[in-house]
Input
Amino acid sequence: MANEIMFKSKFTIYVGACWILAAFGGLMFGYDIGISGGVTAMDDFLIKFFPKVHERKLHAKENNYCKYDDQLLQLFTSSLYLAALVASFFASKACTKLGRKLTILMASAFFLAGAGFSAGAEHKWMLILGRILFGIGVGFGNEAVPVFLSEIAPVQHRGAVNILFQLFVTIGIFIANLVNYSTSRMHPNGWRMSLGLAAVPGLVLFFGSMILTETPASLIERGKDAQGKAALKKIRGVDDVDNEYEEIKRACEIAKQVKQPFKKLMKRPSRPPLIIGIMLQVFQQLTGINAIMFYAPVLFQTMGFKNNASLLSAVITGSVNVASTFVSIIAVDKIGRRKLLLQACVQMIIAQTAIGGILVHYLKTTGSLNHALATVVVILVCLFVMSFAWSWGPLGWLIPSETFPLETRTAGFAFAVSSNMLFTFIIAQLFLSMLCHMRAYIFFFFSAWILIMGVFVIFLLPETKGVPIDSMVERVWKQHPVWKGFMDDDDHGSKIQEIA
Output
């Protein structure tokens, strides 16, 4: 059986460069996640665009949990994700018709335009337009980059290679926190510097995408068989690629018979990867991670930290985020996806409930935590971020990118990306209001969701470690005790035999 052969490959400098350059799409995304929270905590930014919020912030006796509760301020952060939600479906079409490489190039161009509008904004509409352009770039990048990485990675290292995307997301967040810490002292235009520097990863991706190879699957899918085989030899570093080439070719033949991939996704045999892909992205947001990452400086100010101290605390959590992602890169192809996810659920629940307990008892509507308790909260936040960074962060992107068959891969991943963006938008738009109304109990809200996530993994998430990307139907879905029932009317396997 072809799907039981370990395809030949060796590492080359070129393919390593392709992995790194494509992963800059994650750095763009991460930089934006990290930069917005710090910018919204800067007085100069608030004075210019949100003076009422700044006035509330100055009131010493103002409710700790409500001083940043402003829908327009939250729209500054969340508008990006609403734009990314819509853009991801156009990105799916671009990935299929134009290829992964060109879609990545388009993502960088939108991001550069967003950086220009945001940094030069004089009115709120310019600020929001910049965020929308950022969002389109994020939608295109988050659609194309994980699929690109999964398709060019050798099966034995696919998990680690795909996690480069999430690693660069964490690096982007960390860099954004460092930038905010520095620019917060640059009056009155430090916020412009923070937003404008988003152009740097955009430029790297823009020029880097020009030297990326297109994925063999994309080339063969578009009828460029010779180029596809040549690209496969280039990224594998060996000439003997016949077995893998034939596997991709068979998958492409099946894909060509599917004229409407979005309609195919609605059929019963497509539901297992679709449900898994969507729910992993939804659950990723319901851990509460982006509530912390978006608003870390604001959150730490709520706990009584001064402005610079809160930004410094965000830098600390950002560095933990980066370092912990390396754990996932090392472990994901050795111990598997499920064990990482389940271990993290336990650690995240402990951290979140402990944070909630401390804040319920010690942080009232006015006043602040004492230094010792504030330090404990920062440590607990780091423990939470640590476990997320080696589990739900990277695996939320990895698993959907590797489980869809080629005929529905870009369409299915578009649903996964759009689900992520939808719930990122919801959390970004509602978090500060939820913090105001739920107060410290918001951490118990997220803890309850993490418990549900653990149950979902135990019963419904199959292990995909070491399975070739185009063999998932036969070796994963048809073997799973729950999902195999959805495959009864699937003619995927028979089509493979007919084509072979």
In short: Residues 305 and 374 are 8 Å apart (CA to CA). The chain has one domain: 22-499.
